[in-house]
What does this fold into?
Amino acid sequence: MTNLVQLTKDNGIAVITINNPPVNALSPGVPEGISEALDQIAQDDTIKATVLIGGGRTFVAGADIKEFGKMTSGKSRGPGLLPLLLKIEDSSKPVVMAIHGTAFGGGLELAMAGHYRVALSSAQVGQPEVKLGLIPGAAGTQRLPRLAGVAKAVEMCAGGNPVKADEALKSGIVDRIIEGDLLAGAVAFAREVAHKPARKTRERNEKLGNTEENAQICSSARETAAKKQRGLLAPVVAIDAVEAGTKLSFEEGCKVEQKLFIECLFSEQSKSLIHVFFSERDVGKIPDIPKETPILPIKSAAVVGAGTMGGGIAMVLANAGIPVVLKEADQPALDRGLATIRKNYANSVQRGRFSQDVAEERLQRIKPALTYDDFSTMDLVIEAVFEGMALKKEVFKELDRVCKPGAVLASNTSTLSIDEIASSTSRPASVIGTHFFSPANVMRLLEIVRGRATSKEVIATCMQLSKTLGKVGVLVGNCRGFVGNRMFGPYRREAQFLVEEGASIEAVDRALTDFGMALGPLATGDLAGLDVGWRIRKEYRHLEIPGIRQPFAEDRLCELGRYGQKTGAGWYKYDDQRRAMPDPLVAEHIAKWVAEAGIAQRQMSAAEIVDRCLYALVNEGARILEEGYALRASDIDIIYINGYGFPAHRGGPMWYADTVGLKQVYERVSEFQRQHGEIWQPAPLLKLLAGQGKTFAEFSRDQVATA
Ligand code: NAI
It folds into this structure.
């Protein structure tokens, strides 16, 4: 037997233990080991029943995701799990699956092949394959409806969300919840059932329902998927697979599932989602900051500024159990900030996210302040005052004076130089950028901005902090706009140019939401406030190079007082529930402005809109990558997916460009350069890689490897 699987005996009950840490993934060797154990059990007359359990902290948490990549590159196409699962099910001695931790994906499929399942009350089961653009591929779509009924199976396979043990018991996936020691409970259960005939899951057809009901269940699930998982193929395919199973024999149903599984496995969507899965794990790998870098303990924190961002950041810290001092400039601003925090917590309680007690506890952790008196003991300070260098420097000078040595001094600035802010202190090594996204308590992204002098300990601490806060922290360099906003500029510039050249506002937004963006670029402007960019542009107007075209429509809208959602009107007009509606008045204004400016109007296809906006992102992303402000292309992808509503199933902007092919992207960018001038000059890296027939992903691997 392989060393990943052990077989022991406990007075007539065989115990198969999978030991493949950390999550007992079904890597090569595990199925073989289980199979060999079953052979031995079959030959041993002293054994009456079997318990299969996971060693360590979990049952089988899923398939080995690396294996999926190998399957598509032709390196591994074994028989899969199906034969093993049939062998388990065909065993004449009952097999009891003992579940703790999680039984996800292949883990649940394995568990369902047993004759019984027992679980700790803390255990969870699920078929999360759709989150990787896949469907269950080892009869999950066929056995689950036989245990849990068609509606539950459809919900689990299409939604991908975990199900807790008590719910699994109710729906028939689990037969008993074990209190106390799982193995002892499972062995006792196995003794109870040892002499009963072992029932095969695949022969339990009584929960498969009738055609009419199933058609209804599946069609409403398809509607939900179209709304909640817009653009994703796998959820719909998962529903198809379950539905097919209700109409066919188990064997035929498995064949349909296999075919659909392979289609998903080779789809761009699945490859992209698997890329995102691994990329999210890669963000923590920083070549010059080894794992052993000491991490400073963050047991207390202060936030300066209780506005939009400061209030949200204070909540994020409090939610993670870190006590926070929240400092404002004056009492009315402090009261306003606290009122918003209270309202946000009340909303969460109302929506059932957590109880009133939890909300109170969190609120109690936020201590309002008008002075820096309590700052001397703080481990971390995050500054979120108005965006202005003079004010930021003043605040940091004060922090330098009052904070203890070793405290992490972070700024939430979205555009200002961390180095310049740090220069106002005597300890630039302790200064770093922590760029949260709005609303800070909701958005997962945290750009961690490394200044020239920022110490490795401070960077490692903030990377760790991002995890504690439930965020994805991505390390970026200190350039204007950092990574996300620096790329967002050209993207939104193009959206405006398109409108100025004749595309309708709705057509621009629709082309990008059809591509998969959560929100179109113009609607995003309305949400964030058009005045923010307008103020910045006014301040930096003297830096604009004469002769280079600048968009003007948004500035004009601001001059009319149309700042977006906050004023009830921007690109769109809004009702009191902030629902966007096209505003013919804006179209009229724009028509007049472009006529005055003499900009030729023409028809534009959705494809051109998408190319113009996305390649503007990609071209700037290539510059950022080449200049080293992002460690790897996949970090940029993670930033865009978690901070800017880029569809995960497209893998992020850089991955998307790789899938299109950089040669094609380069040619299109060059074409835009001929049509629209120097703002479209191809990034040197894009030109280089296109010429070499390489991808951003390959470039990143070489870079990180040699760093
Ligand atoms: P805001 O205007 O909502 O809040 C700023 C707050 O700082 C105000 O309540 C003000 O009274 C307070 N303040 C000013 N001086 C202070 C002092 N000396 N001590 C204590 N409090 C003081 O601004 P917002 O939007 O929260 O932005 C804060 C920072 O976060 C800026 O640097 C901004 O660029 C950045 N940011 C903003 C994002 C957004 O979407 N609003 C997104 C990401 C970053």
